[in-house]
Each structure stands twice: as C-alpha cells, then as structure tokens.
Specification:
Length: 289
C-alpha cells in the first residue's frame, strides 16, 4: 500500500520533491518506494531525464487503476466506520416496489438521518442488477441469488386487483373472463394458477402481457384490466384508494420482494441503519401474516 500511495502522488504531481512534501517523506524515500514497486512489477513506471520525470506508457495505464483502488478503499472505509449521519447509501430497487412502497416512505428515513446521502437506482430484471457496486438491493424473485444474502419482505401471495369502476362489475370469478386480464412476464404464478384454484377454465380469456408490475398497476388504475398483485404492496400504500380487490381469494407464490446484499462483505453503518428502519416499517405486515 505504501508503494501504491507513493506512486499515485508522484504520478499525479510528476515531481518527486513535491510528492515527498505531500506525504511527509524525504525525496530519497519516495524514489526508493517507486524503485521497489517497479522492481516488483518488472516494468519502469517513470522516465527519468535531467531531473524531470514523466510516466511511461505502462505508468499512464496503471495510474487510473491505482487511483480507483485507493478511492474505493477510502469510500468503503468511510462507509463502514463513519457515523450514519455523514455516510452515503446506494440502493438498487425493483421499480414497482420503489415507486409503490419505498419512495413514499423515504422521507421518514431521511428525517431520521438528515445528513445521509441517498442514491436510488431503479432496475427490473435480474440481469439489470449487480452491474455496478451498491450497498443494498431490493429485487423480485425466489430469493436465491448466488453470493447474495436475502430477506423476504412481503407475504408471498397474490390476489386480483382492478379499478373501482371495474370492481363493481364483478360478482363471481367467472365475471373476470369478460374483462381484460394482465399477466406479468417472468412470474412463476399467474392467472392460470388463480383460475385453477377457483375451478374456472381461463383458456378463452383475453390477456395482456407486460414485463413490469409497475406497468400492470398503471394499466389497472386506468380501468384497462385486472392484475394479480401482492396484498401487502397494495393495502399499505396510496394504491389502496385506487385499486380494489373484487374477491378475497389469493394464490401462494414462490416469489417475493427481497432485500439483498453481498454475503461476506461488511455492511456500512448506513446500510445497517436502513435495514433496521425497513424491518421496523414492515413489522406490522409480518405480524399480520
């Protein structure tokens, strides 16, 4: 680490004397540290000519790598050991959960930690997650992602929801066959499973297919059709005034929204605070289930 720190300062300043002053070393000590690093790598990093230094091609390529590593180490150290009030929290969240449940509650969390900086990124599919380092993720699925610890967040069951205007037209499960049904791509349980539970053949039903619960919610709100949603997500948000469940009939699902984070990596103080806050917010739902 001493070699790399010395290299970063000397390469940035292109002056061994100035580097020595910045890191409180002698010029000869700076030169020695650079020599040791070059010997270890087997390549010169600096051109030395007439008391002036410049980076070699390998040195120029290596500098941003070293700077990125040092900056990442500084940030991670600060995240883990600094007080929550002065930290930063990066969260990647499924779009439907972010818009429906998380965003309306974030003011409560930020009021508790007013100095904490948040960065929220929306993702939807599994392949959208983990492209860049984040502190926490909220994703939808079965809860088995390699290298990730996960906590389920909602009661794993689905029931029909639609706009109030459509709900008034529905008195029996058979009545749903006269309405457009909204299926969500990628979900393991859907309308066929629900109709199987009530003993109705849905093969002739008109079904729209979408790739996001967020889109399904907006379509249902507009009166376009009926979708299968999580009761916990609908009943505990402002959506409860916009969407109605014509029947209290649900199907169990193998999927859920999960809070995830990398296994084996220490959580920052901010991440721990967010997890504690979120579990407190969800506690009434878990007690009810």
């Amino acid at each position: 680490m001493n070699w790399l720190k010395t290299f970063e300062v000397a390469a940035r300043l292109l002056n061994f004397s100035a580097a020595a002053r910045e890191i409180n070393m002698t010029q000869s000590a700076v030169s020695q540290q650079i020599r040791l690093l070059e010997d270890h790598l087997g390549e010169p990093l600096f051109n030395r000519k007439h008391r002036r230094v410049s980076l070699t091609n390998k040195g120029m390529s290596y500098l941003p790598v070293v700077q990125s590593a040092i900056n990442g180490l500084r940030r991670s150290t600060a995240d883990i050991f600094s007080p929550v009030s002065s930290g930063e929290l990066v969260i990647e969240v499924n779009m439907a959960f972010g818009l429906g449940w998380l965003a309306p509650r974030l003011n409560n969390f930020c009021s508790r930690y007013p100095g904490l900086r948040l960065e929220i990124r929306h993702s939807n599919w599994d392949q959208d997650f983990d492209k860049e380092p984040v502190d926490l993720s909220i994703r939808h699925g079965r809860g088995s992602w390699p290298g990730q610890a996960s906590r389920p967040l909602l009661t794993p069951r689905l029931k029909p929801y639609c706009a109030a205007s459509l709900s008034k037209l529905v008195h029996d499960p058979m009545d749903l066959l006269s309405l457009p049904l909204i299926d969500i791509l990628g979900n393991h349980q859907g309308w066929t499973d629900w109709f199987l539970k009530v003993g109705v053949d849905d093969s002739a039903a008109l079904k729209h297919r979408v790739d996001s619960v967020a889109i399904a919610i907006n379509m249902a709100q507009s009166g376009l059709g009926v979708f299968l949603g999580y009761e916990d997500l609908i009943s505990t948000t402002s959506l409860r005034d916009k969407l109605h469940a014509p029947f209290d009939i649900w199907i169990d699902t193998v999927e859920n929204y999960h809070l995830t984070y990398p296994e084996g990596r220490p959580l920052s103080s901010a991440a721990k605070a967010f997890i504690d806050w979120m579990m407190d917010e969800l506690a009434p739902l878990q007690e009810r289930s």
